[in-house]
Amino acid sequence: MLKRVSNRMLERLGRIWPQSLLGRLMLVMAAGLLVTQLAASVIWASQLRAKAQVEAQSASQYMAHGASGAIRFFRSLPANYRLLLIQQLREMGGTRFFVNLNHAYVPVQQIAEHPLASSVLATVGATLKSDLPHSPSFRLAFAWPDQLVVSEDGVRLSDLPDAWVQHILLIQPDPAPILVIQTEIEPGNWLYMAALMPNPYFLSSNDPLAWDRLALQGLSLAVVLLLCLLVVRWITRPLAALSDAAAAFGQGQDDRAPPLPETGSREFINTARAFSAMRERIQRYIEDRERLFISISHDLRTPITRLKLRSELLDDEALRNEFEEDLDELDMMVKGALQCVKDSDIHENPAEVKLDALLGRLVRSARLAGHEVGYRDSGVTVRAKPLALKRALGNLLDNALYYGDRAEISVSSEPGAVAIAVRDHGPGVPEDAFASLFDSYVRLAHGREQNDAGMGLGLGIARSVIEAHGGQLLLENHPEGGLNATIRLPA
């Protein structure tokens, strides 16, 4: 069960993992940057919260000491002087607290629960208890200005004259939470005090997920990723050129591939020079090979013909027949070697090939020769070298007709490819013989019985042609008997 789950996870990762080097480098660099920024943000946020907690504790004690002094002062005044002093404070200003007297506790609509606000309230309450141990309980809360009620008759802070509060509390344009302290200084008389913290916006200043900070991090991440993309593209572009040159050379289109630019990093320049030198050596080898076999064909044809004429002069008929058989075999070997060279290196331009027309001609020729071949039109078109593809398909069809009673050809479209299957109805191939089927001059016992004139070159030539087109030739035994040869060409 665990193995099945792990296999599924690997399959999903394989679908996500990009196939190109550019995509992989970008994914790795983006993941690394995201992990680094996430780790840095976590560390920075923890330090920011710790710093904000320390600052809030100090500010809380400062506010509590100021509030305890104000409470002592108002408690020491005669009752008829308190309102006069409050009125003077409102008109003159210069005080930290907005002060009011009520006959009962005024309910306050508190702000949403916040850990730092709760910590501040706890510290203020503890400090007030320490400074005023004999005072009754204190009612503490944080409230927003637009929701704050300041008197027992329901008067809100927004209903008061601006001169009373504009120098004490922040109401607009960006309101800040207000600390409200209420305590009963004597039975039936409640002292109401409201003030801002030394840092009015202390609740938002320690938030690592504030939109401005997130926007800054997102902008920096986008800039770094853009620079990484430019650098990675600059690094991988020469590799893409090298890949295209290698693919063109492998498919026999080296004359169309532009020369590799010797620019970029030192490693790529060395690689481009080594590839160019290797391409030139291989091209010279191919040309030398063609000249060699043409020379062999030309040089051997004359002595073989001369030996055949001399064998006609032999009186012994049995000996003459043996000489002729040996010479015919030698002639066939030379022709087979030349065919192996020429058929695997056909020089022609790719074109749009209608498979129905190409395969139709092969099927009609086979039927005229008395063979049974099944085929149904598919309407599929591929881009290939027409003559080379025809020879590869002809070799596969010839094998199927030599070694089976009849043959069937089918064409189907697959994602990104076109599949051409040639199936015979013969005995099939032993499993241990598949590895050597494409080797030159390799023939199985059943093949030698059915066609003793063959050379064992057809499958090798067909595979070389198909691979030069960027495709694959796959051989397998059909479940219902016979050998199934499948060609997959790029769509």
TrEMBL record:
It comes from the Bacteria. It is an enzyme of class 2 (transferase). Residues 233-287 form the HAMP domain. It catalyses: ATP + protein L-histidine = ADP + protein N-phospho-L-histidine. The keyword Nucleotide-binding applies. It is found in: Cell inner membrane. InterPro entries: 2C_sensor_his_kinase, HAMP_dom, HATPase_dom, His_kinase_dom, HisK_dim/P_dom. Residues 295-491 form the Histidine kinase domain. One of its GO terms (cellular component) is plasma membrane. SMART domains: HAMP, HATPase_c. Its main location: membrane. Its EC number is 2.7.13.3. The chain crosses the membrane at residues 21-44. The keyword Cell inner membrane applies. Signal peptide: none annotated. GO terms for molecular function: ATP binding; phosphorelay sensor kinase activity. Keywords: ATP-binding, Cell inner membrane, Cell membrane, Kinase, Membrane, Nucleotide-binding, Transferase, Transmembrane, Transmembrane helix, Two-component regulatory system. It holds the Pfam family HATPase_c. It is a multi-pass membrane protein. Coiled coil: none annotated. This is histidine kinase.
